[in-house]
Amino acid sequence: MKTLINIKDLHASINGKEILKGLNLEVKPGEIHAIMGPNGAGKSTLASVLAGREEYEITEGSVDFDGKDLLELSTEDRAREGLFLAFQYPVEIPGVSNVNFLRTALNEIREYNGQEQISAKDFMALVREKSALVELDSKLASRSVNEGFSGGEKKRNEIFQMAMLQPKLAILDETDSGLDIDALRIVANGVNKLKTPENGAIVITHYQRLLDYIVPDFVHVLYDGKIVKSGPKELALELEEKGYDWIKEELEKAH
Amino acid sequence: MSQTLMNTKLDQFRSKLTPSKVKIDQTLLDHADAYLSGREFPTTRDEFWKYTRLTKISNLEINVNDSIIQSIPEEAIIHPNAQKIVFENGVFRKDLSDDILQVQGVQFSEKGSSSFTFQEDVFYALNCKYSTDAITIDIESKTILKDPIHLILISSGDGSVSMPRIVINAAKFSESEFIVSTHNVNSQNCLSNVVIEADVQENAKLTINKIQNEKSSNFSVFNERVDQALNSCFTINTLTLNGSWIRNNVRVNVNGQNAETHLLGAYVTNENQHVDNHTLIDHLAPNCQSNELYKGVLDGKSTGVFNGKVFVRKDAQKINAFQSNGNVLLSDDATINSKPELEIYADDVKCSHGSTTGQLDEDAVYYLRTRGLSEKSARHLLVTAFIGDVLEKIEDEHVVKYAENALSMRYGWSF
Amino acid sequence: MKKQSYTENELAKDLENQEYKFGFVTNIESDKAPKGLNEDIIRFISAKKNEPEWLLEHRLKAFEIWKTMTEPEWAHVEYVKPDFQDITYYSAPKQKKKYESWDDVDPELKETMSKLGISMEEQQRLTGVAVDFVMDSVSVATSFKEKLKELGIIFCSFSDAVQEHPELVKKYMGSVVPMTDNFYAALNSAVFSDGSFCYIPKGVKCPMELSTYFRINEGGTGQFERTLVVADEGSYVSYLEGCTAPQRDENQLHAAVVELVALENAEIKYSTVQNWYPGDKEGKGGVYNFVTKRGICERNSKISWTQVETGSAITWKYPSCILKGDNSIGEFYSVAVTNNYQQADTGTKMIHLGKNTRSTIISKGISAGKSQNSYRGLVQIHKNADNARNFSQCDSLLMTDECGAHTFPYIECKNSTAKIEHEATTSKIGEDQIFYCLQRGISEEKAIGLIVNGYCKDVLNQLPMEFAVEAQKLLTISLEGSVG
After folding, report:
1. Does a structural domain hold residue C63?
2. Do C425 and B351 touch (CB under 8 A)?
3. Distance CA C109, CA A173 (A)
4. Which residue from B181, B297, B399, C420 could staple onto B211, CB 3.0 to 4.6 Å apart?
């Protein structure tokens, strides 16, 4: 079976400090992988590196994304190839309407894939359909990107954008942080509805709570820049119960 | 083209002054001579003096007066443990001053040389040429002063002209606080033209608390010049509590990286007072931050001027500069002219400035009255809070207390 | 590892290579005055235009005043001062007759306009805009005159107004910008060639946007336009002014005067898109734009200035409002883009004289290349202006480390009931915002276009619809680069 993304021995550093220290991860179509780990383990770094943030230097390793060398692609080409990052802190872009923003994005992605521009009518129909998916007020679609949105609205807007752009692989970076239970449910529902046998998702989270709603196929523990433990969804519960210290101890014992 | 003396008002003014016997750098003196020669007092057509007229200064009746004070006036005592250095009419009064050589890590001399080059400014030039006295205080490296050094500047008699020159060298890793205050004893129509030059060296921390509290028809011009090196921290708090005509020029060159600069100011004016604050923060090195907050309350027929300029030079990247000026006008005859300026030549910066002018929030006044305060005390409370915003940021509680007392006495406010 | 991203410095490089899009010259023989400026030239201009004696005297008086004045130097710009004796002060297209209909207009002129994307037919059909096309100082085509006439609206060239409505011209010309106002206003008063005149009678709401496209054409011809808009009591007008100029090597001086008069309860909306030749990427050539624009507001009236400035080598321009009448309102919305070696010193003056007067200033500066972009503004509250309000927001966006962005606001307040708020920020274009766009598949070039247009939205929103589209295009063109 083909892989969607295959990360091998990935090392990345920022300002000379190594954060990822040989990370391996493979995601196949139709799978949801959860990445958990204590603060500072490198979870958000992984998301940033995969999306192509310039501040990070990749010193070793490879990332194959659906048959392409991901690390050789520019940020926008990674997006156009179908990699989507739901940001932990979505940025505000004053004066740029969500609709205008998404239409530009969608059309650039279509152009890249040799498809025709979407008509205004079809686009608006798509906006209506997908905004309903995350129960996003259609008025928000005409507001400036994330400007004046509440924390929950920002996160829902991320999932709405994901629905609009229909990526092959979605990376959800701490999407649950700062969400109340209702918002969490809406966001998770959105993600679940978007799941197909062809696409996949990496769900980065600190807490198990989100995984009650988005049920992962695999759970990985990221610790000190590496995946140190992988298991089925029950591993998340164990982590919730015992914290991360036992992993640390286990690791120390092993050495 | 040669100009004959007495051609200009400035020449006439200079003819009444006594050339200085203070030793300063000869090139500085040459510059001052060249600058003053044939020059006229600036007018309001000159951008730097747009809102402040110098006519009254050019027409001053100048006298040379003998020292009269026998002791430090009580109102000049601000900090109980401060080392006091007293000037009367710009002349160092050793007899009234503490011997700060006794303080460990402090050097003191009656000299006026500094590392600064000439500043093109008529009052700076006059101070070079006609300096009445000069002192240099060195804070040796790694010295951490427990108590502040207090420079007490007193005007006495009629028409005295004071031109003291004060040099502060804050050496590496030193931490020190200076209080500079102006007072008057039986004086009127005096001119104080003070120059303070401070060199804040690597990792040094220097704070100057400046209190202006003259209660007479005197004129004050302050030129403070500061150089900041790598990792240094400089703070100057300018509290103008009284005084009929005041001009402050604070110029800070931030030459080293990771330096911090804080400028705070409060001016509370009434009657015919005229207070003009000019500040310049010149960011010449990257990765620095500066904060500036000036607030004024203007009553009577008084005039306030705020001109704050932030320069960010080319290659001075990653500068965060914040500047704010707030004013409350309590009377229809009061005037405020505010000019916050940004001149930015680097791109990776975050700079902002804001200026607000208005009256007290009438809704707040109303709210307080519904809680049983009289209108008068409601207004007092709000004005106090407005100025208190500046005072609360000042670390030296004795300085804050002094300012609060002075304002309470003058306006009946309670802090 | 590959550095994938296009940096702002690279963008800036691409911007430098942007050649002026509208750089072409229309070849129409001119009827020119000899170069230079003296009393005879002024008499020549006046005679050529068959002006009444009082106007000639007005010009000569202005010339006398101008001779005593010196060029202002306070602006944050550096340039070689024009040689006023090396300028042609009058040139007119040779056609003798006036056009009765659009069909009579020189086809070459029409082509010029369609190259500019402002095809008059289309504009007439689609938008109902009446266009008064000024080419080298003389108005050559005027449309929609009939319709406007029915409403009693006068919209014609300044020269026609002098002939046909001398009483209005005499009454209002110089009433807002006196000839003594400044060096360039005095020069304009002496030598102005032509311009536009507009009068809206009492209670009339002008049903269409009035529009004038200026175009500097003849090499070395200074343009001294004069615009006068008078909105009588209770009337309304929206006036558009757009400018493009052909590419020239030598600097061209443009010193226009625009006067707006809003009588009681009247409203004037004046919008400008300015895209004159900014000089090449070495800073050679380009238009000097030294304009005096000012409006006066009587009781309950409103004047709103909106400008999108992307062109000219040097811009020196402060559209202002004198809020004389109680309850009057002044607004200033501005986007100024500078690139390469362009220098702009622009802003506004809001003079509050009347009670309950209000003003709003929104200024967005964008600096790229090696350009210098300054906001200079004055908010002045006079003693009797009780309850005056001002809000100013001046933001600057920096695109390269070689350009400059400066803010020089003057706030002068003599009334305790006034409320004035001024805010200014200067920052680099947001890297997080660019990354966010990239992550959604948007190219860096488009991302910058989106962000910049969003940043200017508050101003662009003030423009009439069709103008807003043109302005957005202009912004995108001036910030467009070719990503490899």
Report:
1. no
2. yes
3. 59
4. B181
| Mean residue pLDDT across chain A | 90
Domains assigned to chain A = 5-254 (3.40.50.300)
Work out the pLDDT band at A68, boundaries 50, 70, 90: very high
A165/C442 CB distance under 8 A: no
**Token pair 């007119």: residue:** C92
In a domain, B103, yes or no: yes
- Round to whole Å and give the CA distance between A160 and A190: 8
| Closest chain C CA to residue A86 | C439
Strand order in the sheet with A200-205: A83-86, A169-173, A200-205, A32-36, A218-223, A226-231
Contact C416 B330 (CB under 8 A): yes
Given a contact cutoff of 8 angstroms between Cβ atoms, the answer to whether C146 and C155 are in contact is: no
Q: Which residue of A has its CA nearest to C6?
A: A74
pLDDT of residue B304 exceeding 80, the answer is yes
Is the per-residue pLDDT at A122 higher than 70? Answer: yes
Task: Answer whether residue A5 shows pLDDT above 80.
Answer: yes
Confidence of residue C2 (pLDDT cuts 50, 70, 90): very low
Q: Of B234, B256, B278, which residue is a domain's last? A: B256
**Residue of chain C whose alpha carbon sits nearest to that of A171:** C439
Interface of A with C in 133-152 (CB under 8 A): 144-145
CB of C383 within 8 Å of a chain B CB? The answer is yes
Give the gap in angstroms from C-alpha C271 to the nearest C-alpha of chain A: 20
Look up residue C272 and give its amino acid.
Answer: T
Shortest Cα distance, chain B CAs vs residue C455, angstroms: 16
DSSP label at residue A175 = T
Give the chain B residue nearest C369 (alpha carbons): B347
- What distance in Å separates residue B132's CA from the closest CA in chain C? 36
CB-based contact A79 C443, cutoff 8 Å: no
Domain of residue B375 covers 360-415
Residue C191 lies in a domain: yes
Residue A70 DSSP one-character state: G
pLDDT at C137 over 50: no
Least reliable range by pLDDT among A118-132, C85-99, C231-245: C85-99
Choose one of B221, B256, B291: the last residue of a domain. Answer: B256
Put simply, the chain B residues between 21 and 80 with a CB less than 8 A from any chain C CB are 47
- Do B245 and B374 fall within a single domain? no
Q: Tell me whether C378 touches chain B (CB under 8 Å).
A: no
| Interchain contact, B355 vs C420, CB within 8 Å | yes
C403 — contact with chain B (CB < 8 Å)? yes
Q: Do chains A and B touch (3 or more CB pairs under 8 A)?
A: no
Q: Is residue C1 part of a domain?
A: no
B83 and B206 both lie in a single domain: yes
One-letter amino acid of A83: L
B248 and B364 both lie in a single domain: no
Q: Report d(CA A155, CA A153) in Å as an integer.
A: 5
DSSP state of B189: S
| Nearest to B120, CA basis, from B215, B48, B25, B204 | B48
Domain that holds residue C181: 102-478
C57: in domain: no
pLDDT tens track for C294-315: 999 999 999 999 999 988 889 9
In chain C, the number of structural domains is 1
For residue B121, tell me if it sits in a domain: yes
For residue B308, what is the nearest residue in chain C, using CA coordinates?
C408
Q: How many whole angstroms separate alpha carbon C131 and alpha carbon C7?
A: 42
Task: Name the domain count of chain B.
Answer: 2
CA distance B47 to B319: 26
CA distance A90 to A159: 11
Neighbours of chain C (3+ CB pairs under 8 A): A, B
What value does the mean pLDDT take over residues B254-280?
A: 96
What is the model's pLDDT at position B126?
96
Both B247 and B366 in one domain: the answer is no
Q: Is A73 on the interface with C (CB under 8 A)?
A: yes
pLDDT tens-digit series, residues C29-49: 456 777 788 888 898 888 888
